[in-house]
Amino acid sequence: MPTMASPPASCLAQLLVLVICFAAAAADNEDSSLKNQTFREAPQFYNSPSCPAALRPSAAASCSPDALVHVAMTLDVVYLRGSMAAILSVLRHTACPQSVQFHFVASSAVDYLNATIASSFPYLSYRIYPFDGSRVAGFISTSIRAALDSPLNYARSYLDRLLPTDGDGCPRRVVYLDSDVILVDDILTLAATRLPETDTVLAAPEYCNANLTAYFTPSFWSNPVLSMTFSQGRHRQPCYFNTGVMVIDLDRWRAGDYTERIEEWMELQKRMRIYELGSLPPFLLVFAGRIAAVDHRWNQHGLGGDNYSGLCRELHPGPVSLLHWSGKGKPWARLDAGRPCPLDVLWAPYDLLQTPCAFEDS
Length: 362
Ligand SMILES: *[C@@H]1O[C@H](CO)[C@@H](O)[C@H](O)[C@H]1NC(C)=O
Ligand SMILES: *[C@@H]1O[C@H](CO)[C@@H](O)[C@H](O)[C@H]1NC(C)=O
Ligand SMILES: *[C@@H]1O[C@H](CO)[C@@H](O)[C@H](O)[C@H]1NC(C)=O
Ligand SMILES: *[C@@H]1O[C@H](CO)[C@@H](O)[C@H](O)[C@H]1NC(C)=O
Description:
Elements: H1 9-25, H2 31-34, E1 69-74, H3 80-93, E2 100-106, H4 110-120, E3 125-130, H5 134-137, H6 159-162, E4 173-177, E5 181-183, H7 187-191, E6 202-204, E7 206-207, H8 218-222, H9 224-227, E8 240-241, E9 245-249, H10 250-255, H11 258-271, H12 280-287, E10 292-293, E11 322-324, H13 331-336
Parallel strand pairs: 1-2, 1-4, 2-3, 6-10
Antiparallel strand pairs: 4-9, 5-11, 6-9, 7-8
Helix pairs in contact: 11-12
The structure holds 2-acetamido-2-deoxy-beta-D-glucopyranose (NAG) (4 copies).
């Protein structure tokens, strides 16, 4: 079994040094200069004896039915530092790191992203699938947060079409992860979530006490047909879920053509504004109340907080398997700025960015 990374006391001193280094590095956040970011090579991780044979490392892997878990993520230059840390966290905490296959979706700088992943993770079995952003651009109406309007943010709705089917439907099931997550538990456990009913397409932690009112506009709620959405069909309790961590059954997704259902809501949104926030509301409209529940430990979300007021979030009560810095602030930006939130130090050990201050991994 790989050892769980617990922060020894000496680590805290190193972290302090790191924080100071980040501040000194004064990273320039321009998009093009981000392409000059260089990343360290991640350590190699090995399967435990109980795992199947390792997948062959490849930067152009075809879907392997031998993979124990297929992970889908988007890649872009701006969030690459987060993605690299997320990948490292998956590998570090699973019993079978050589049986995890990654499926990345990217819409620009594909060669740079490919080369960067290949050099930091030379033992990874992965492939990058190019995503044509103009495919969804026509559906996107401006949301209140510009970052959520990036076409790549919508790629999670197209995994059924982007990922291969290789004739035998491989991959049948994927775990979709956002770029601002860190796993501290074995992804095999998450991937093994049961989707009990034959029409259950996805699983995610859900929050049935959440009030959905604020996610949709008054014109949505005042329209009798639209507001019926959450009470139609089998007793549908409109539970909130976050789309940053999802287990998706691609066969069932394809069978029900859920991409088209999501696009229908996006088309309606263009004609009459029914929600404010990017790609999440159409997912809620199609799936809320119809998903398999995953333990809340698998998406401790909201840790990004709000970087304007300097608001830091705390963990939700209960155990933690996955930390998610959703929200405006990102841990790497706050670490660079020398103003980290307390939980941001949990992200730092997974950072692969090469900084001018050489930091040796112990
Ligand atoms: C990377 O940095 C070099 C030198 O600082 C510069 O000439 C080049 O334009 C930069 N490349 C990008 C993509 O920003
Ligand atoms: C990524 O790099 C590998 C190896 O150089 C290459 O075979 C593959 O086609 C590249 N992927 C993309 C999407 O360009
Ligand atoms: C949900 O929030 C709205 C305001 O956003 C409030 O008017 C409404 O009473 C709340 N509903 C419940 C069930 O708490
Ligand atoms: C805060 O957010 C703004 C806008 O998203 C961004 O430009 C800025 O770099 C962020 N600052 C920090 C310290 O994260």
